[in-house]
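Sanity check

After download, print the first record. It should look like this:
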Amino acid sequence: MREKEKARLAEIIEKVNALFEGELSDDDKLVYVNHALKGKLLESDILVQQASNNTKEQFSNSPDFANELMNAIMDALSAHTTMSKQALDSEKVCGGLKDILLGPARLYEALREQARP
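Expected structure tokens:
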């Protein structure tokens, strides 16, 4: 990973650490900001239009941005809660997640990579 990218991710982690309490891993924080929230916000046609027509400062003060961020936070809560609840309530779903993690997600291989000196 390039140094610039590492620095950007470290900055995200540092800033999220200042916001949240509790036992959250750095990966939890990055996934939440970079995927759950940013991914949802990138889907907003309103925000795409406003970002292309305004300065960053004007954009940051947009009521639409504040509204879309709140919607993204609620969607992330809903999606993760729904998925986690289904996994906890169903052996089939939990088993399917296990198969995905060991198959296409390559968890086993990633764990073995981390164990290498």
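If your output differs, re-run the checksum step. Summary of this record's structure: The chain has one domain: 3-89.
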